[in-house]
Amino acid sequence: MATDTILYQKDINTPLPIASTTKIMTALVASDYFKQNSILTVNQGASIPGSRVGLVNGENLSFRSILYGMLLPSGNDAAYTVAENYPGGILGFVSAMNKKVSDLGLKNTHFDNPAGFDSPNHFSSAADLAKITEEALKNPQLAKFLPPKKQI
Fold first, then answer.
1. What does the alpha-carbon distance between residue 139 and residue 123 come to, in Å, rounded to a whole number?
2. Active site residues
3. Could you report the per-residue pLDDT of 6-45, keeping only the tens digit for each?
4. DSSP string spanning 96-133?
5. pTM more than 0.85
6. DSSP annotation string for 17-79
7. Residues 103, 92: contact at Cβ < 8 Å?
């Protein structure tokens, strides 16, 4: 990353389903809004299927705690809890995700949920995911959860 040199590439601009790598953008957008000690309330996110942290409807947790639950065990319930607590709820959050896509100049990415559930309108490319991850690594709070930069 330090040299911005691509060592190998194949179809790097092809949009594909991205599953839980979505949560990198979810964390990026959420970190722009929430403070680490912001208190979020678990609502419908508690019943989201798939990989879960085990959040309970009605409990209050810090954004930092929910961020850990979203990024380490890839908790879908945590991703939806973040989105539900954002202004405008899930729709407002997904809109902010797509605005961030535009702000970053990404051409092959579109989100329609905060957790990464498959959908024809939820995709990214390898090149765009690399840019999203690079942006997340600029945030010291998020960099803790992502693989470290290695100098070659």
1. 23
2. 20, 23, 74
3. 888 999 999 999 999 999 999 999 999 999 999 999 999 9
4. HHHHHHHHTT-SS-B-S-SS---BTTBBB-HHHHHHHH
5. yes
6. --GGGHHHHHHHHHHHH--TT-EEE--GGGG--SS-----TT-EEEHHHHHHHHHSS--HHHH
7. no
